[in-house]
Amino acid sequence: MEPDFWHRRWEQNQIGFHEHEFNAHMTRFIRHLGVQPGDRLLVPLCGKSLDMLWLAQQGFEVTGIEISPIAVEAFFQENDLEPERTTQADTLVYQAGSISIICADFFSVAPEQLPAIDGVYDRASLIALPPEMLPDYVTQLTKLSGPAAGSLLITLDYPPEEMQGPPFSIDPDRVRELFQQHYRVEQIYQEDCLAESHFRNKGLTRLYEHVFALSRRV
Fold it and tell me: Which of 23, 88, 198, 207 is the S-S candidate for 194 at Cβ 3.0 to 4.6 Å?
């Protein structure tokens, strides 16, 4: 999936993945990361997610990575934040208070461009990518996060033949296969969310949301 795909989605305001409330799984399960106020959390492919506001309100330092400048500008404007803009390694970085967003392709970001990362929150990043990109995503995420940084991961699981992503279907077995080399994978929640999902209108017959706590292997 090329970067132009996401640029077009934001340009055309095709952003059905954006949630207008704080994610309930995040607020319930973020404690499984074992992080404390003052720790730095990474939010990959963050868009203009309101979840970054909630994490900052809990006392975390938040770093997002987002390829679309439209999304980044919208996050700060819609939340009445005036960011400071700086350039690091030819990359524009926005910062307001304890929230910073690197406007770049996730796969092009080097570890030295980030502060030390204590944990990762991934609601709509892994499932935004087609299957062939997932191993590279996991490799890059592992490089960018600290050696002890775990991850709170939320995925969707549906019959893949019934809908073309994104969001893409990733079942628990695939999550374990992708992450088991570097992480211990614990599934902490599962929810049947088909009845309340607009994806039902696209012909889905099954839709589950899975929540995982990933802890780094030492």
Answer: 207
83 in the same domain as 171: no
112: Cα within 13 Å, side-chain hemisphere: 2
- What is the C-alpha separation between 150 and 22, in angstroms, rounded? 21
Q: How far apart are CA 132 and CA 148, in angstroms?
A: 27
Residue-wise pLDDT tens digits, 81-120: 999 999 988 899 999 999 999 999 999 999 999 999 999 9
Number of structural domains in the chain? 2
Task: Calculate the alpha carbon distances from 70 to 7, 24, 132 in Å.
Answer: 8, 26, 27
Determine the Cα–Cα distance for residues 64 and 41; give it in Å rounded to an integer: 8
Q: What are phi and psi of 114, to 5 degrees?
A: -110, 150
**Domain membership of residue 48 as a residue range:** 36-117
Read off the DSSP letter of residue 117.
P
User: Strand pairing of 119-122 and 183-192?
Assistant: unpaired
In-domain check, residue 197: yes
- Residues 63, 144 contacting (CB under 8 angstroms): no
Say yes or no: 101 and 52 in one domain.
yes
pTM over 0.90: yes
Query: What CATH number does the domain containing 148 carry?
Result: 3.40.50.150
What residue type is assigned to position 151 of the chain? S
